[in-house]
Design goal:
With 64 residues, the protein is of the alpha+beta class. It has 2 helices and 3 strands. It has helices at residues 6-19, 50-61, and strands at residues 22-27, 30-35, 42-47. A 3-stranded antiparallel sheet has the order 1-2-3, covered by helices on one side. A hairpin with a 2-residue loop joins strand 1 (22-27) and strand 2. Helix 1 runs parallel beside helix 2 (50-61). The longest helix has 14 residues, at 6-19. The two termini are 18 Å apart.
Length: 64
């Protein structure tokens, strides 16, 4: 079984988000997911750990 560090999980979540027209913002050890839209970004959700953020990104982008 392959184990990933939190940094690797975070980088993968950011890459998936970027590939699906979204982005991740980090502030005070919290990660917010936004979708890029014309007038302004749309907030999707906020998580406190890289693993939880990865699950949110996969669910929001329908990534499997």
């Amino acid at each position: 079984m392959i184990r990933h560090t939190p940094l690797q999980i975070l980088k993968q979540a950011k890459q998936i988000a970027s590939d699906h027209n979204c982005f991740v913002a980090e502030k005070n050890n919290e990660y917010s997911l936004f979708r890029k839209m014309a007038p302004s970004p749309v907030f999707i959700g906020k998580r406190s750990t890289p693993a939880a953020l990865h699950r949110l990104v996969c669910k929001a982008t329908n990534f499997q």
